[in-house]
Design a protein that fits this description.
8 strands; about 45% helix
Length: about 280
């Protein structure tokens, strides 16, 4: 098997199988001619099976529909093109922009998640479970099939799934068995502005990993204005700014007499020795 043909076939297989195929191909040169032909045929069969599984995953991608009421959906085409053309994308979106729930679907629309899983990290376990349930509801799939989660002591995710929500600590733990993260073809590091120890370690590790995994895509989301640091950390990765969703606020101004009566009732609490949990109202 020619080198060019082999690596072209490997690129169409599942990401978790590629290191094993490359190792088997490199060992062919050390085998006698008769054993080499047999081993080459077995390698081609394994490659074909992995390619069929990837094709099956591509056919089973569910129909996706974005929530058009969210600001991030209005920039969908720009985000999809950035994911296709760049290895790292920094998405700066205010709270309520919809980046957490819509970004995994945008990755699927960009063709990701076929050869490997889309890993989506959250700082907390509760957030990982709730976000997974929300995205599963939006794609009309039971939790754990297309979209699932994995947290400490609890998991709801099938190998045939596409999007895997987890805490950043779980992803770090997986490095012990999968140092190149071959099970994933896309990683979403959400809420990176929190800058926990786990997040900082992941960002540093991914910076060293990306040259060894050119097929891996990384999307970093942040809700702060200082996204330039994340971009410079990954060799000036492109930044996409998304505005937050507007929220209608109504202000009610109480009459002055009502304010005075409330303050008069709160005066005895000032001299009380018991702890006071009453809200502070300014006139």
């Amino acid at each position: 098997m020619h080198k060019t043909d082999f690596f072209s076939a490997v690129n169409l297989s599942l990401t978790q199988d590629r290191p094993r195929f490359i190792g088997r191909w490199q060992r062919l040169r050390n085998l006698p001619n008769e054993q080499r032909q047999q081993a080459e045929q077995q390698l081609q069969q394994s490659l074909h099976q992995s390619q069929q599984q990837a094709q099956q995953r591509q056919q089973n991608v569910p129909a996706l529909q974005l929530n058009e009421d969210l600001p991030v959906s209005q920039r969908a085409n720009e985000i999809i093109e950035a994911i296709k053309n760049h290895q790292v994308v920094v998405l700066a979106g205010e709270t309520g922009s919809g980046k957490t729930t819509q970004l995994p679907k945008l990755c699927l629309l960009a063709g990701r998640g076929v050869y490997g899983w889309i890993g989506h990290t959250q700082p907390r376990r509760l957030a990982a479970r709730s976000v997974a349930a929300r995205i599963a509801e939006e794609v009309n799939s039971p939790l754990g099939e297309v979209v699932g989660y994995k947290v400490r002591f609890n998991e709801a995710f099938k190998p045939e799934g596409y999007v895997k929500l987890m805490t950043d600590g779980i992803l770090l733990a997986e490095l012990s068995n999968d140092r190149y993260l071959n099970a994933y073809d896309t990683l979403i590091i959400d809420e990176a502005h929190e800058r926990s120890l786990n997040i900082d370690f992941l960002l540093g590790y991914l910076r060293q990993l990306l040259p060894k995994r050119p097929d891996l895509k990384v999307i970093i989301t942040s809700a702060t204005l200082d996204v330039g640091r994340f971009s410079r950390h990954f060799s000036d990765a492109p930044i996409i700014q998304v505005e937050g969703a507007p929220i209608l606020l109504r202000c009610y101004i109480a009459p002055l007499a009502v304010k005075r009566s409330i303050l008069m009732k709160m005066k005895p609490l000032k001299h009380s020795k018991k702890p006071c949990h009453a809200p502070l109202l300014m006139p």
